[in-house]
Amino acid sequence: MVKFLVLISLLLLWSAMPVQANWFNDINRQVRSIGAAKPVTAEPLTAAELADYPTSYHFERVIVPSHQTPLFVLQAGLEHRDTVVLIHGLGELASKDWLTVIPALATRYHVVAIDLPGFGLSQGAVFTYSPKEYAKVIDWVISHYRHPNAQVHLVGHSMGAAISLYYASQYPGKIEQLVLVDAAGILDRTAYLKQISKRDIANSELPQGLRRVLARVDNFADKMLEKTGTGLDPTKWLSRNESIRNMTIGEQTNTNAALALMGQNFSVLNYQQMPATQLIWGADDQVAPLRTAEALLHVLPTAQLKVIAGAGHVPMKSHQHIFNQMLLTGLASTSPSNAKALARDQHSENSSQRIGKCYQDSQQYFSGHYDQLFIEDCKLVFIDNVDVNQLTMSDSIVTIKSSRIGVQQKKMKITRSTISATDTDFLGEINSTRSRFDLAGVTFWGESPVFISQESTRLVLSLVRIHTPTHVIRLGGSYVLAAESLESVL
Q: Could you tell me which of 38, 160, 8 has the C-alpha nearest to residue 168?
């Protein structure tokens, strides 16, 4: 009752004074603190547990109400208004992965770093360590640790980036900006396995004939991996059986979290209402290949990508100075709309009369504008930043990036070929016969159906969209088509 009377008195006093009063923020904080429940403290932290952390930071271990589990929380730069929340990836280090980053951030921002439940100093309850469950934890952290009226920036690395992406999609309006650092687990699992097993044949100094043979060998290996994507998958069964999973691997934190991450289909999320997003990536990342960033760039309408040359999966450690500069610059930017995304709305036919051809060649590059491309029996074709009105392909292996292929109300014929496409738009209708497609960050535009298999077509899809005049379909996963359209099996 006393707290209620104090609250009413403060509100009445505020309403009688000008809005411009200098002490408005102080009163606002007092009013918020009266009604807010303070976090319940968990087991106290010991000096040994905090030995690797700077003594100037603020630490506590509290109980997260959503899961009744301990949560380690680190804060720095408490004097600053706007808040940056840091989410770590897999591994035993947890929030320690950010120790090279926090000092730079704390000069400008209030920094909150946590050990996700099950990691680091947040050992405790066993549950499904999935993006969905971890998003609940992040939401509680943001609501309890942000300064009043502050903007919140969410920064995630690896698995933490995937969790942050999921949070931003499911809790719209809660954060001002999203920063994804080498996000893992976004591509379809089959696409990911194929990507990390690829050899860089194109840039090798091997003889042309040998490159052609190796391309065929890699193509056969990819075909075997694709068959596993449509077969029996025991990990999916384990993901759907929570009680069995918790009994068998529940306390194996990295396995629990990795399995749950694999079970999340990021392709079906709605990315149109996402906040401004910065992507920071190591160019040589073998854990979360750069293709992931390029696919995300396609579906995130306001995303910007910054690549650190020579960096791997943990660029904040290997390239600390460059990473911190990129992060601070990104947090301070207004993140204008992705110009490439805006250009995708322009579906008019280009006026080029140029015709490109490849016949029985092992390696060929195409870029720029074409009216037509004819590719026959070519095993190392690269189509990069191409705008082409008509594509015809047979008995070939082709990689496509950042391109626009086809025009509305026209058909493209793909026969006995393999296509890997990233950050690309297909217009019109694709007719496939005994071909294979690995598509990541791809949009089909046209009248339904946009993709028809005449015979035996395999597709591995990550972050794929179908836009027709009447509907939008978001899809990912592995598909095998007989004589049918892609839409008919969804």
A: 160
- pLDDT one-digit tens code per residue, 89-125: 998 899 999 999 999 999 999 999 999 999 999 988 7
What is the pTM for the complete model shown? 0.82
- Partners of residue 425 on adjacent β-strands: 404, 443
Report the pLDDT value the prediction gives residue 196, as an integer from 0 to 100. 46
Q: Which of 86, 169, 77 has the alpha carbon at shortest distance from 120?
A: 86
Query: Which residues are registered as beta bridge partners of 31?
Result: none
Instruction: Tell me the pLDDT band of 26, cut-offs 50, 70 and 90.
Output: very low
Question: What is the spatial distance between Cα 297 and Cα 300, in angstroms, rounded to a whole number?
Answer: 5
Closest CA to 263 of 273, 252, 255, 271: 255
Beta-carbon contacts of 417 under 8 Å, excluding residues fewer than 6 positions away, are: 375, 393, 394, 395, 396, 397, 398, 435, 436
Rg (CA), the chain: 25
> Two tokens at 400?
């496509």
What is the rounded CA–CA span in Å between residue 237 and residue 233? Answer: 7
CA distance linking residue 3 with residue 350, whole number of Å: 69
Strand, coil or helix: 291: helix
C-alpha to C-alpha distances, 207 to 85, 219, 362, nearest whole angstrom: 51, 18, 10
Q: What is the 3-state secondary structure (H, E, C) of 113-172?
A: EEECCCCCCCCCCCCCCCHHHHHHHHHHHHHHHCCCCCCEEEEEECHHHHHHHHHHHHCC
Strand 429-433 to strand 411-415: parallel, antiparallel, or no bridges (unpaired)?
A: parallel
Reference 137, options 171, 98, 92, 181; nearest CA is: 171
The model's pLDDT over 189-205, given as tens digits with 9 standing for 90+, comes to 775 554 444 545 455 44
What b/e string do you get for 52-85 counting C-beta neighbours within 10 Å, with b at 16 or more?
A: ebeeebeeebbbbeebebbbbbbbbbeebebbbb
pLDDT at 423: 97
Q: Give pLDDT, residue 125.
A: 78
